[in-house]
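ok trying this again, last paste got cut off
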Amino acid sequence: MGFRYSTYIDSDGVTAFTYGCGGCRTHLSSSNLILSRDYRGRTGDAYLMDKVVNIVQGSKQIRQMITGAYLVSDIRCHQCKNLVGWKYHHTDSRDQKYKEGKYILELQTIVKCNSKQKQKMMY
């Protein structure tokens, strides 16, 4: 099998925080990539993110949500396969187009990581 390459997000912990998978703490995104904190996921509160790393995407499916129908795919941590949210691929609604290519991270599935803690865990 071999090692899986993971992108490391270095945040100072003061002006920006790193968010990691709740299952294994693999880095997923940074607080300076949050577009909105006013979202709800399947498990509760969620963030709309501009970019997420170290994930695998599931198959695309049409999902009906409060604001309309979207073509989305679930996203999972690439290390432990924990479900952490979804990616918006397409919507027909013109006023929701800004979500295309963006990600939802559900707060119940992620943790705030201390970059120095993650570094210690790796060795």
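PB: full thing came through this time. The chain is about 5% helix and 45% strand.
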